[in-house]
Amino acid sequence: MFTLLELTASSARQRFTTGFVFGLGWFFPALAWMWFLTSPGYIIGVAMYASLHGLASLVVVRKDDNRSFLFMSPVAHILIEVLRMCAPFGGVPLATLGIAQVGGPLHRVASIGGVILLSWLTWQIGALLAKRPLDFSVDHQHRRLLWSLCLLSLVGSYFAPRGSNTGRDFYVVAVQGGGPQGTRAIDTDPRDVVKRHLTATQTINNNGDDPIDLVVWPENVIDVVDFATSTEAQEVGAEASRLNAPIAVGITEDVNREHFTNAQVIVNSDGEVVDRYDKVRRVPFGEYMPMRSFLKSLGAPVDQVPRDALAGTGPAILDVPTSTGSERIGVVISWEVFFGGRARESVEHGAGFIINPTNGSSYTWTVLQSQQVASSKLRAIETGRWVVQVSPTGFSAFIDPEGHVHQRTGVGEQKVISGHVAIRSGKTIYVALGDKPWVVLIALVFLAAILNRSKSRTKSRA
Questions:
Q1: DSSP assignments along 65-103, one per residue
Q2: CB count, 10 Å around CB of 29?
Q3: How far apart are CA 178 and CA 414, in angstroms?
Q4: Residue 175's beta-bridge partner residues?
Q5: How far, rounded to the nearest angstrom, does the alpha carbon of residue 2 sit from its chain's CA centroid?
Q6: By C-alpha distance, which of 44, 45, 52 is closest to 22?
Q7: Which of 32, 76, 161, 410 is most buried, by the most CB atoms less than 10 A from its CB?
Q8: What is the pLDDT averaged over residues 303-332?
């Protein structure tokens, strides 16, 4: 419907307004989670992203040339989406078309070109269906070419490499401690969160016939000055010893009065920390305050984020000890699951499956949590790997390489879920290529369409 309105708008103002209103309808509900981080940022962000799509609509249609619309509408709007994934503050890659389509018939395309190709395919089909979808007598060459590209992308995704099972698996237990949502760390006692997860973990029994290979706790459920010397480390170590299985646990540690770290560590059955990954992608206005001094001078409530998280620099992997050595897994902590490059990096470093420890308890409703499950599905399809998502208050789930969700928990409940996760190897096309080739290709198509339209207008005036 939007592409048809975009195509039939008769003036520049109408074209911009069409794109802007469309953007408001898209981002106003889908980015509502931002309200709980920064209400002014939510309003500004929605207006800015809607305006960018208004500008895209202004560019793609001209009264004297509707033919280029078929090419330009998809690539122009997807270029806006690419920009949104990168800036400002590292990007906000939520509420994308890819997230919306991950449960639909086009989702397999993500294994070839990630969220960018999936978004383009969705928009391109919409543009083709906007007006005379099967009338090949008008612009027949353009339409046939574009329909062929869409069909090739979709069919090719069913035959593209998606990795393979190694014949090994991990018996993984994910622990959701439960509790209320809409809470902030500065307003709660961190011991309450630890106790809930200890209580849930104590219900687990390690069956000797089917031993546990890994227990996963969510992001930053332990908040201490120094984990290695803390009471919490002893408690986690005792559970690892009782279960004779390593535990991957999310921790935050104090660095100084201005900074802290957010990490996922592996505690072995001897109670020792044997590996650690520090979160690389931080949440703006959640884990650090951009332009802190400037915003403070304006009277903004920067004290809601009193300290900034230090960004990690290491690859997105953890080595989990096993009876025969170790097994490498991928790790994307919370916000990082929205960035395809983080999961892709873990597979490039040999990860057999991926964990996504997260913490959505600061957000009321389930807007963000639902998009996070959808993003975990995207990462599973893109990489050809199982993804284990675990949260203190929901949602926690197992997602297979085809994007199917298993054992998803409810919000707020205390629950332990478990299952055998296949260790996989091999690369999808997306893992091999990444996002850059698709961004370049889309930009080149947009540039070629602009040049071709300019050339056509020059000829018509001659």
A1: B-TTHHHHHHHHHHHHHHHHHHTTTT----S-HHHHHTT
A2: 11
A3: 4
A4: 416
A5: 25
A6: 52
A7: 76
A8: 93
Whole-angstrom distance, CA of residue 206 vs CA of residue 196: 20
Dump pLDDT digits (tens) for 49-63: 999 999 998 887 655
Question: How many angstroms separate the most distant Cα atoms in the chain?
Answer: 84
* DSSP labels, 369-414: HHHHHHHHHHHHHHHT--EEEE-SSS--EEE-TT--EESPPPTT--
Give the percent of the chain with pLDDT over 70: 91
Is 362 within 8 Å of 182 (Cβ atoms)?
A: yes
pLDDT tens-place string over residues 409-422: 999 999 999 999 99
Residues 6+ positions from 265 with CB-CB distance below 8 Å: 227, 248, 249, 251, 273, 275, 276, 277
Closest CA to 174 of 221, 234, 208: 221
Q: So what's the architecture of 164-427 in CATH? A: 4-Layer Sandwich (3.60)
For the sheet containing 354-357, what is the strand order? 317-322, 325-331, 354-357, 387-390, 397-399, 405-406
- Helix crossing, 190-201 with 231-243: angle to 10°? 10
Residue percentage of the chain with pLDDT more than 90: 67
Q: What is the average pLDDT across 167-187?
A: 87
d(CA 419, CA 424): 15
Host H or E run for residue 264: strand 259-267
Q: Tens digits of per-residue pLDDT, 13-62?
A: 888 998 999 999 999 999 998 888 888 889 999 999 999 999 998 887 65
Least confident of 120-124, 360-364, 400-404, 433-437: 360-364
Q: Where along the chain do its domains lie?
A: 2-161+434-461, 164-427
Sequence-distant contacts of 78-86: CB under 8 A, at least 24 apart: 78/116, 78/119, 78/120, 78/123, 78/442, 79/442, 79/443, 79/446, 80/49, 80/52, 80/53, 80/55, 80/56, 81/116, 81/119, 82/116, 82/439, 82/442, 83/52, 84/49, 84/52, 85/115, 85/339
Written as six digits, the tokens of 149 are 């590209």
